Amino acid sequence: MSNHFLNAEAVRENAHSLAAALGIDTEHAEELLKAHALVTVDESESLNVFLGEQVSKLLARTLQSAGTDVDPRNPAVEIIIGQIPARSTAPTIWVSSDGDTACITRQRPNLPGVRAVHPAVLIVVGCYTAAAALRLVIGDNLPLPNRDPLILDLRALGVTPAVISHQADLGHTYLAGAGAIGNGYLWALRWFDVRGQLDIVDFDTVKAGNLNRQLWFLESDVTLSKAERLAAVAQPSFPYLKLVPRVDRLQDLPEKKVNARWLRRLIVGVDSRQARRSLQSEIPGEVFDASTTDIQEIVLHFNRQPTSQACLGCIYPPDGREAARTRDVARALGVTIEDVREGVITPTAAKIILARYPDRGLTEAMLEGEAYDSLFKALCAKAALRTEGNRQVFAPFAFVSALAGALLAIETVRRLAGDGATFNLWKISPWLPFIPRLQRQIRANPQCPVCGETVFRDIAGQLWG
Q1: What is the C-alpha to C-alpha distance for residues 404 and 234, in angstroms, rounded to an integer?
Q2: How far apart are the C-alpha atoms of 162 and 164, rounded to whole Å?
Q3: Which residues make beta-bridge pairs with 105?
Q4: CB–CB of 310/443 below 8 Å?
Q5: What is the torsional sign of CA 144, 1, 69, 16?
Q6: CA distance to 195, 346, 420, per residue, from 266 (Å)
Q7: Largest CA distance in the chain
Q8: Which pLDDT belongs to residue 320?
């Protein structure tokens, strides 16, 4: 698969993420990622082919090229799926599954190819395979956990025959965020029988640097509305689910003024802690949330109001790291901390930012209404910003965001099917097997800035009690 996903800015974002993880300069990281991944598939099994396609698409947004058509004379890694000989002399990653478990290893396993695995679960396997392949490409000096063989207990995901056959009726649900997690969510959700209406809410546009991780978008989508493009390109994959783009902030949608119970169910894929707390303040009836901590961790969280369990404000409280990030953004852009806490750039702030960065191809029209966090990431990717302490946060690789979205999609369908899932918090590493015993029931924090308020609890009880 020739790499038509990555432009210079997307390549730079991947390099920044790798450089931050390894403690090396960006130019060195970019050279490491100029690698090719050969995917070799036993095509006698259709699920082998499907998994190979997923791995290829994920790695094609991370490395220079990936796929079955990569020249076998010079790959940095070969991923082999099924009982088939290697086609190169490169280091190998073998992938197999018996339906209950999946094995990702550098040694040829005894398991067969891929058998009896649901496509959404195979996307999860593909994400872990891409992570293992990247580690092999860059060497074992990545300061993150490593395990070989990596055995995934697929039964822990709860994709049972009852869940697969269930008609998951979303009713009228809102997806906040059409970025990397929102893309990954719909990438996996399409393999279930999902019905109803999903409003995709995002006021941002597709940036050139987004292409390293937002799976539905191509170069032709750059500068266009994320919500509109995601709805348009994903809709053919959802025959019974209506996707409605909403180019706005969820907090500003007009229906909230006429219907107190407008936000019955909310899927959260936004990319800041502050934004999550703000969304919880809208008092949704149900919340399905996923987030990533750079390339190290995925957090799954769920709550239904009224509850004594943790809300988004409890899970993502204000902390020192967030405060430091807010100060960095304010200083780098020349605005106040209060401006950054507003979330989006006002016309006045746009003029200030444009005066500070007159040579970055920015305009007032581009800046007005843009999220501060998105602009900060974009300028970091262009190496335009230097902040105190050199604190810069870069976007995760495609397989990390896709894994978060896929796990969120699986949990959404599980819970709609009423399979008895009880945890409200699960932290997962993209580099180690997911561990069911880490699923937790976290109670609400009395000091929570959201649900710790009496008014919030009273209104939640009135709306959803």
Answers
A1: 18
A2: 6
A3: 94
A4: yes
A5: negative
A6: 15, 27, 20
A7: 66
A8: 77
Helix (H, G, I), strand (E, B) or coil at 237: helix
- The answer to whether the CB of 140 falls within 8 A of the CB of 181 is no
Contact (CB, 8 A) for 178 and 200: yes
Please tell me the predicted confidence (pLDDT) of residue 299. Answer: 97
Collapsing DSSP to helix, strand or coil, 148 comes out as coil
CA distance 320 to 197: 38
Q: What is the structure's pLDDT at 370?
A: 80
pLDDT confidence of residue 378 = 72
DSSP 225: B
Tokens of 298: 């995925």
Per-residue confidence (pLDDT) for residue 160, from 0 to 100? 93
Radius of gyration of the chain (CA): 22
The residues facing 225 across adjacent strands are: 205
Residues 12, 16, 17, 18, CA torsion sign:
positive
Q: What is the pLDDT of residue 2?
A: 47
Token pair for residue 122? 């195979």
Q: Which amino acid is at 12?
A: R
Quickly count: other Cβ atoms within 10 Å of residue 257's Cβ.
8
CA distances (Å), origin 450, targets 112, 260, 302, 315, 422: 50, 18, 15, 11, 22
pTM of the predicted model over 0.85: yes
Confirm if 36 and 66 have CB atoms less than 8 A apart.
yes
Closest CA to 13 of 343, 383, 286: 383
Q: Report the interhelical angle of 119-138 vs 46-59 (nearest 10°).
A: 50
- The answer to whether residues 168 and 411 touch, using CB atoms and an 8 Å cutoff, is no
What's the pLDDT score for residue 391?
Answer: 47
How far is residue 295's CA from residue 301's CA, in Å, rounded to a whole number? 18
Rounded CA-CA distance 265/175 in Å is 9
Q: Assign residue 382 a region (left: φ > 0; alpha: ψ between -120 and 50; beta: otherwise).
A: alpha
| φ/ψ (deg, to 5) at 390 | 55, 35
- Low-confidence stretches of the chain (pLDDT beneath 70): 1-4, 111-112, 380-394, 420
Q: Give the residue among 132, 131, 97 at the shortest CA–CA distance from 113.
A: 97
